[in-house]
Amino acid sequence: MAATLIPPDLNSSSSTDSSSTSNRSISRSLRVAEKAKKGIKAEDPIVAALKYFSKVQKGTPCRGNDEFENNLVTVERVAYSKGLSPEAISVMLEFAMSLRMGTVPCVRVLKCLLPSTVVPHQAVVRAVVWLCVGKLSIATQVLFIKWVLTVFDMIDAKDNLRAIYGFLFSFVTEENLCPYVCHLLYLLTRKECVRLFRVRKLLELHSKLGKQPYLLHLLSLYKVFCPELVTLSFNSRIRAGFGNHNGPWKLALNAIQKRTAVLVPSDLPLALQTQEKAGSRKRKLGHLDLPVLTAVVQSQKQTSLSQMVVPLAQIQSFVQLLENLHLIELPAQMGSLLGSSLALHYLDCVQDESAFLRINFWLGHSLHEEFLFCGHGGASQGSDEAVQFLERLMSTQDFLQEGFSSVEAFLYKFLNVWDGSLLRPQILALLSNVPVVPSTCISRLLSEPLEQLFFTSKVFFKCGLIESLNGMLVKWLTWHSVYALEDGRNVDLDTSMNVSRSGFMLSVGELVRFVGRLATLGLQLEGCHSLLLSFILDFYDTVCDIFQKYGLPLVVMIPRSVFYPALFAFDPISVDRLAKIMNRYKINLTAAKKQEKITGKAFHISLKTYQEFNHYLAFMVNCLWNSRIFQPGDDIELSEELLHESGVPQYWASFSLTNHPAFHCYAIDFHHKCWPERRDVDLKSIQHLQQWGWYLEYLFTQGFDGLRQFIQSNIKTSSRGP
Amino acid sequence: MEQPDDVENLEADAAVDGQGPEGPNGLQDTTPVDLLRIKEQMFNQCVEISAQINAVENKRTCSTSEAEYNLADNVTALEETKTEHFIKTLALHRMQMGHAIAEKLQQNNPESESIKAVNDRCMALCSQIKDLQQESKDMGDQITDIRKKRLELKQLTRDQMKEMELLKKKYEPPEFEKYKAAQQKGQSNIEKYKTMTVLAQNVLRGIILACKINWLDDPKLKDIGMTLEDLPITD
């Protein structure tokens, strides 16, 4: 190799520039000649560079050393284009952290350490040991720890890192390093690592530095593992996470992953066939991809005789899960649980608080820090990743039938900055999974941001939002109907949900009122758009049945601003649905009254609700059947002059079942069927008793069940027709 | 304002009613003292007025919270009025539209033919929509039922797990009493040795750190260093 030509006096600082220049030029030309002779591939420079860095002697000067410079530039070039191989990472990390050529190259090397596949754990362990030697400056130490945090998911095994947990812990006392070391410890901690003296140290720091979020996070994890050792109490939700430590590597890593993913499309299908995990490894480097489920302890050695712990990654079937239920050990990277249904089963059964804490932490971190990166990627690949991630999250929540508190927190923050169109279906679906919100917080957390979005958006967003809130209501009611079995019992589902029955009723009432307001103003803004009306009627379909279907003693009446647009709608379907809703209200109200009489318990439906209902009912019957609306004293009063001015003769009958704009075409159709020979349509002839009955039958055959039930339950048809 | 009237009255009194407070004589007696008195009264009245103005101003600043409270009510009242207006306008418009379409259909011209065609299409669509809505409602109900069942299962699972935990705690191995003492002694021994081990490990770790050497390179130190977290018997 060319290196042998250079005289071995690189140790001495007396290697002059002139001699090195001439040597360099000789070596370069020789190298080029050799390359030309053997036709070596372009990877050779990197191999040579790595050999240089692994063999360079201690004390070699780096300033003015062109060979060093060239090799470093080679390494950087390869790193930024496709990432460094594991061996390269080992060599470069060892070179940097051992400070063989002084402190200056260390920072530069650390900044270009971009792995292409994995980071060998031995290299990281060696580097940490070099950290212990204590010759690095604080800034460099911080940089190193940040790098470890960035590539943490790519380190192939974590058990050796856990073996030096104590050494890592000793860095906590260094104030500048403390936040990052705490983050790293959080990722590595297992139950065995929680020792009393460590807790004491952290508490000491806590009293010295104050309520730092990183200390609190680590302490709360310790508390989850060993509650008897940590006596501090924590806010159930520590909002601020560990912060984004990705620094200069994240964007470069992103670029590398995209490039490697594009470059090897043919490999992916093969990899997926043989082993799912290896295939997903290629895509694993995407920062929103769920990490692969790996075991905590790669080596098979058993540290103790009595306790045999089965890593979750080894469980392949449900039967195996059942057999080993009490021996399962969770993986280091909690995010990987979201992809595996077995893992989710396990989580569901064994309500392991530490697991939920760690998952929430990982989710919160991913959503807050990574998600925002993805959305602005610009490339469609970026938003595909986000869509996939959110869909995975949603399917997990559906599987578990409960939401994660970190997702909820993220959503509240996100709603404040959302523009209403980015990833709309996913965000709205996540919104419908939000668990019961205390009524005092609804206005701050939901109403304000959603109102802003609602009023400034197109009609399709309005429909989507109303649908999502409808879904939310249904989920709340379903949850309540299963979990609140006895009256007054505090429902204590998990640490974050502690809702009493009356609190729940207040929340539901507040939600219904909020949607009512949205509906009122939405219909006015959109001019009674039929699609919007349909979604709103869907919502009131749910609301009218709250008592009968879900057992919650609450009846909220449909507001005027929804009732009348539905009654006067152009499409018969809205009228039919309105009739159905009124029916259900009647059933619910009568059942409520009965229950009051039977059980004697006060069922708090105000008189106003009954009055409202009666008014609506009377108006509807008068309108559709009796052809008698707009009379003075009615619910809607219009002055005589105005009605005359409108130019409509017999305005009082303008919304009857024959003249109503929605049913007019049916009336005409019926008229043709009844009297095919008549040319002029005279709808009054339908109003004779016999024809009226046939007309009603005809309408019912067209599928208007709501009308049918309405008429049958509210109108005595034995009396004469209208 | 009171002041000018009073002053006028005073002046009038002083001017017309010749009898000043000093004496029944003419104007000369009343002028200086009365003027002084008038001046004093005017001064007092000025002070009173300024005090009243200040009081009024303070009242105004206090009532912003009241104003906010009223604001909420006023907004609601405004929205209600808007809604009423909207509903009435809607009713009128729909009425007129319905009537216009009905009139149009009475005439037999091409326009009415096209309206009839649209009507027929609407009716067909309506029955389709009805079917689809019914289908989606049925599916929605099914989903809700399934969701309910799953939640019930979850609750059942949790109750069972709790029961199992209780049973596990209560379980005592057979012939527990015989070996209870021995077991307890053994347990306390374990605790003692564990504490000693942890302490020793801590001390060793401290020594290694204080030496500031690369302990990975020395095989013996490496063996020690890499096992400083292990305890042979875990909890």
From TrEMBL, chain A:
InterPro entries: CENP-I. It comes from the Eukaryota. One of its GO terms (cellular component) is nucleus. Residues 9-28 have a biased composition (Low complexity). Residues 1-28 are annotated as: Disordered. Keywords: Centromere, Chromosome, Nucleus. It is found in: Chromosome, Centromere; Nucleus. Pfam families: CENP-I. GO terms for biological process: CENP-A containing chromatin assembly; mitotic sister chromatid segregation. PANTHER family: CENTROMERE PROTEIN I (PTHR48208). Belongs to the CENP-I/CTF3 family. This is Centromere protein I. It comes from Gadus morhua (Atlantic cod).
Automatic annotation (TrEMBL), chain B:
Residues 115-149 form a coiled coil. Its main location: nucleus. GO terms for biological process: chromosome segregation; kinetochore assembly; mitotic spindle organization. Signal peptide: none annotated. Residues 1-11 have a biased composition (Acidic residues). Pfam families: CENP-H (PF05837). Residues 34-228 form the Centromere protein H C-terminal domain. It comes from the Eukaryota. Keywords: Centromere, Chromosome, Coiled coil, Kinetochore, Nucleus. One of its GO terms (molecular function) is kinetochore binding. InterPro entries: CENP-H, CENP-H_C. GO terms for cellular component: kinetochore; nucleus. It is found in: Chromosome, Centromere, Kinetochore; Nucleus. Residues 1-30 are annotated as: Disordered. Belongs to the CENP-H/MCM16 family. This is Centromere protein H C-terminal domain-containing protein. It comes from Gadus morhua.
